[in-house]
Amino acid sequence: MTSLDVDPSEILERYNVKMEKAMTPDDAAAELYPKDDLIRPIAEAIYEGEEDDTVEGLQKAIDAGKDPIALIDDALMVGMGVVTKLYDEGIIFLPNVMMSADAMLDGIDFCKSQAKEAPVSKGKIVCHVAEGDVHDIGKSIVSALLRANGFDVVDLGRDVPVDEVIEAVKKEKPMMVTGTALMTTTMYAFKAVNDRLLEAGIKIPYQCGGGAVNQDFVSTYELGVYGEEAADAPKMAEAILAGADLGKLKEQFHQH
Amino acid sequence: MTVNRYTKMAYASADDMIFGKSPNPVKAGLDLEIGAGYTTPEVNYAPRPEAGETKEKLVKEYERITRDIMERMVQVGFPAVVLETEHVQQMTNNPTWGGEVANAQKAIMEDYHDEYGIKCALRHTPGDIREDRDYMQLRGEKYNTLMESFEEVASNGADLLSIETMGGKEVFDRAILRNDVPGMLFAIGCLGTMDMEYIWQDIAGIAKKNNVVAAGDTDCAQANTAMFIAGGLLDKNLAHTLAIIARAISAPRSLAAYEAGAVGPGKDCGYENTIVKSIAGVPIAQEGKTSTCAHSDVMGNLVMQCCDLWSNESVEYHGEFGGTTVQCWSESLAYDCALMNVSLQTGQSKNLRDMMVLSDKYRDPQGYILAYDNAYKIGEAIVKDSDDIYLRAKNAAVECVNLLENADPKLQMTRFEKNALADASKALAGLTDDSDKFLSDSLEQYKKEVKVFRPENYGL
């Protein structure tokens, strides 16, 4: 290099360093774990994203007389609650959430296999990637976050024809549909889905986001609510459960 | 075509690397020479979605785009320009569409060249259509359609052939969301490289047959996915230290295009290109502050450091106050190039390069590693084991981690970034040096973990 040099503090600011929380993620999680000796190891295993430890903890709790279905809400969801709280507060990052979600889903499957009756879901959501678009990492994140927050997800996959989305909505009767797209050229399928839903008399929130999708575009069709971040999906679903209609959702999530 | 590995660096020292000059410049199109002592703007664009309804509408749209750019270049007195047409899927899936677009664009460019003498070239980048709804289909029927697309554009006016291949992406998408560094190595360093070698030998063959240039690739599908997920300073989706490890691993993968017959210029969004240039000495396109129309960037000035073409990534064609988008962005790019070219002519280029680097070197770990002095060190780590695609990718990752662990204190990192780095370092230290073992273990693991992973896509 030439002899040029700078004092970076005069030309840039590392706001992430400046704003980083003093508490470590593990310390923050420790403050949030439940006290119950049987439940705490399960919540810890979820936080750590350890599938085997999660199932082992559940087995011990069941052996001690806990109801497997009740454990979904009382242990797995509690552990996931710790994870989502820390993620929302910026203390942990997305990969931690994804690994926790993997452990949570294994835990739910185990609980179901040990029970006679099926658990009650918070609500059903249909997820898809726009027709013509095969980029599905955004949809995978959305669907994992929704499942981790206790919603029942019908994942239609990528490059989903409009007809197939409409059929799935008619069959599954979800509380919300999500659509993701990377490309501006494929996001127009969202408008077609919107029109076909309205034609069928179905008026449910249609959360759209990803890649080149923006709020201006999503605002052009009636059912569209723009999701800027994948983490908006569970927040939007919770808002619907709390009674928010389309107008309220747009008010809350349309930030630009 | 055969695969020839790079066993040494193209430059004697990192300080020799500079924008506008490459050890192996490339002649292309209408009197243009890339990397021969001057930088050139490369304008990228996307048609309005409704233009894709029919072939006729699409051709008209690209004619408007091409004419607008060429007109603005001569109106403001710029000597050279490259246009890049990244295909919308209809153009690659229907190879004659791409051919007709290339033909129409080139006719306009030839008119401007004949009239004004402006140097110019046309790059076409077919889409990587090698997948269906459920699985990647890297070597099936869609491969043939893709090659037909290259053949059509090459025989109808495209001067530079590129693509953004997606080999390894199905494994990478899972690995990156789980901080899985060995998975990233397998996906980008091994699977990505295998696919690159396979496809670029054929693209180079088509280029040779049509007397055009096999330009290069980018790890957009993987390293850029990591960079975009990592996002800005306050985003909480991925440690930026992991994103730059993915980028370091992508360098030997993108290098594979040149080992299989490509000659440059590499694609604009390949932020790994400075590392690639240090090894292959090929000219490169880059994008940064002038691609904010497409995405934000934490190293917008720094990436100009060694560019030969300077790009805006992509902008949808529509009107702005200052003209159409392609006119506004091409003019910005061309003024940046004018400044770089003045510095080359006045002997000030290294100062300008270093000012651009110092603008962003300490802004983020990604800029720190991609600064040409560190990029060069990654290059050296790669050529050390050039014949082994696993080891050279691992070397790149290890060197990246070493550079960050021993970084200049001016680079401040969060505890989170440091922890992610420490975890990555530990994962890398636990890896075998036996390529066969790594490949067979990874194959077994990801066949189980990634339902859509099909080894036959890679000849495995």
From TrEMBL, chain A:
Q: Where are the transmembrane segments?
A: none
Q: Which GO terms describe its molecular function?
A: cobalamin binding; cobalt ion binding; methionine synthase activity
What is any Pfam family matched here? B12-binding
Q: Name one GO biological process term.
A: methanogenesis
Please identify the protein, giving its name as recorded. Methanol corrinoid protein
- Ranges for domain B12-binding: 122-247
State a GO cellular component annotated for this protein. Answer: cytosol
Q: Does the keyword Transmembrane apply?
A: no
Q: Which UniProt keywords apply?
A: Cobalt, Metal-binding
Q: Hey, which family's this protein in? A: Belongs to the methylamine corrinoid protein family.
Q: In this protein, which residues make up the domain named B12-binding N-terminal? A: 29-123
TrEMBL record, chain B:
- Its source organism is Methanohalophilus euhalobius
Recite the UniProt keywords alphabetically.
Methyltransferase, Transferase
Q: Which GO terms describe its molecular function?
A: methyltransferase activity
User: By what name is this protein known?
Assistant: Methanol:corrinoid methyltransferase
Q: Mind giving the lineage of the organism this protein is from?
A: Archaea, Methanobacteriati, Methanobacteriota, Stenosarchaea group, Methanomicrobia
Q: What InterPro entries does the database record attribute to this sequence?
A: MeOH-cob_MeTrfase_bsu
Q: What's the domain of life for this entry?
A: Archaea
| Record-linked NCBIfam families | MtaB_Meth
GO terms for biological process? methylation
